[in-house]
Predict the structure.
Amino acid sequence: MMKKQISVLFMAAAMAGLLTACGSSSGDAGKGATTAAAAVETTAGASSEKKEETQAPTTQDGAAGAPLIMVTNAEFPPYEYHDGGEIVGIDVEVSQAIAEKLGRTLEIEDIAFDSIIPELQSGKADFGAAGMTVDEDRLKNVDFSDTYTTASQVIIVKDDSDIAGPDDLKGKYIGVQLGTTGDIYASDYEEEGSTIERYNKGFEAVQAMMQGKIDAVVIDNEPAKVFVSQNQGIKILDEALTVEEYAIAVKKGNTELLEQINKALAELKESGELQAIIDKYISAE
Ligand code: ARG
């Protein structure tokens, strides 16, 4: 009983935190949010046709005024997620700020996470901003900007789970989002008799766990916090599994755009805008 009350209180506090974080979006940071949202709407309205139309003028041509096409997978709160009909989040606002500095309009394409790198390689999109971790294998196929934040992989389990840490994942059913660093990490446990279930969306893995189909979910820490705060009976284990850095990905060799992005990022760091965007979505513990 007591425990329940505490967890309910915790939930309330966590939700209040979320509300506060959202609430502040209508404050001083609201302008950026509106602009970003407007740009998203433009793309969302005609995404499939737009895709063909906008294929040619990528940054490779350096065409001034051509829209800057961002690819993401908006299943990853607080970095990118659907809110009503809009795609919002840290990566959206950071990308919007970068686009503004480059004098370009931003278009957002929401695609499967494991399609982001192919889409960049084919030149259909200019950059990927998707809470993407800089990873050696990925560096063979894309270039990464300077990093803009750090993260880690964590384990989510049911409150009553017998899994208390990474070692206990052996022999278990582990859910991940397909193609993520969580997938890469968990896949090592296949040798230990574990079964990896790969979902298109991180939250699908969490749902499968709540339904008892799998035992644990390995996912990035901030989305994990959001999923746990929005659902009862699940928790994040204390021990983080990795230390990772998020960066923006561009087509390999597109140094022109990479340098522009790095310059914009440096300015956003320097001015405190980057931190303000992060603080808007992630409340300090
Ligand atoms: N950081 C992890 C990775 O790079 C997960 C990113 C998932 N992002 C998303 N938008 N679904 O693999």
Residues 1-63 have pLDDT under 50 and may be disordered.
